[in-house]
Amino acid sequence: RRGGRGGGGGGRVPERRHLDGSSPPLPPAAARDPSGGAWVGKTPSGTGIGKLCAQLSTEQCSLQTLLLSFNQLGDREMELLCRAVAKNRVLKWLAMVNCGISPKAMSYVANMIKDSKSLTRLDLGLNTVPAKAAKALGASLGANSTLTALDLTQCRLRGGVGFVVEALP
Fold it and tell me: What keywords would UniProt list here (predicted)?
């Protein structure tokens, strides 16, 4: 059940919404967030990302998990998001699998990693990470003491893998 009361299980399941406020169908079981974090639908609007980033930037934000996978995020959305996540002191897990992150936006991700004080898990799988972006990611990893899990599954790192590996302890 979504957002309703009663029925089996005894607990209330929080209603999930797209960034634009519409109610999406629930994702497949494998894609659901068991920790109660945010789940975002397929096409976030600029307004939705702005609202999300504003909330992430507040001290009242208690969100620990943010799953944005399979949303196509442009450079401007990525810049806003990465700045907000870098400022946030609560968010632990950010998933941006297959978000079409551009090489320019990957530089925002690198800065976010460098500045984040709470992020422990970052999933970037199925995004292209060219050598220049991998070098920036590697440098950021060396400056971050909280990130313990980085998923770069099928990111076509090629020559850039060395930069990431060199940053590992």
Answer: Repeat
Ranking 28-37, 57-66, 91-100, 144-153 by mean pLDDT, the lowest is 28-37
Question: What is the tens place of the pLDDT at every residue in 90-113?
Answer: 999 999 999 999 999 999 999 999
In a domain, 80, yes or no: yes
Q: Which two tokens stand for residue 145?
A: 């003491």
Q: How many domains does the chain have?
A: 1
Spatial contact of 106 and 135, defined as CB atoms under 8 Å apart: no
What pLDDT score does 160 carry?
84
Quick one: which H or E segment has residue 22? none
Inside any domain, residue 22 = no
Structural domain range at position 141: 35-167
27 in a domain, yes or no? no
DSSP 6: S
Torsion of CA 76, 80, 82, 85, to 10 degrees: -160
| Residue 82 scores a pLDDT above 70 | yes
Collect all residues with Cβ–Cβ distance below 8 Å to 99 and sequence separation of at least 6. 68, 69, 70, 71, 72, 73, 127
| Model pTM score | 0.73
Residue 139 backbone phi and psi in degrees, to 5: -65, -40
